[in-house]
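Session log. Operator J.P. requested a structure for one protein chain; no other inputs attached. Running the standard single-chain path with token output.
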Amino acid sequence: MMTVVAIVDTGVNLKHQDIAGHLWKNDAEISGNGKDDDGNGAVDDVHGFDTFQSSGLSEGLANNGDPNGHGTHVAGIVTSLAPKAKILPIRMLDDRGNGVLSDALFAWSYAMDHGVSVINNSFGVVGPPPSEFAFMEEAIRIGQKKNGVVFISASGNDSNDNDIIPSTPANVPGMISVGATS
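Structure written below.
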């Protein structure tokens, strides 16, 4: 069984030489015809999804689908560590890395509807307690139980102690939080 990893971030450069051969493909969708061929509510979602447009990730965006570059960076890490994995890029962050946490549910639903094994979330909000995001905990619980999905999140880039100043979604129960230390 092929492992499909959703990268929920700023998009992915669909033409990047190290990633293009690892892209997940929605075989039920016809590229570029401006139609929702598979009836999932997203037009031309051949190689991913854009929550801003409710459509497929487009090479027409800056940087061939990643106007910020961060999602491409994360996808490159995944393809180098898991060269047989397929990448399903989902854009929920804009060119400045800003987005709305509720769009994570939109992204996660799309990913789970398309059979991903892992959902990587390299975004976060520092400060609010995870209890304020019970909707995320419920989505993770359902995704794990119903679909066997593994949820991973960056612990943040602010050198905070997440036990004192939480970073969401890293601190949401069921999320594997990944960090680094010196």
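Operator note: DSSP finds three helices and eight strands in the chain.
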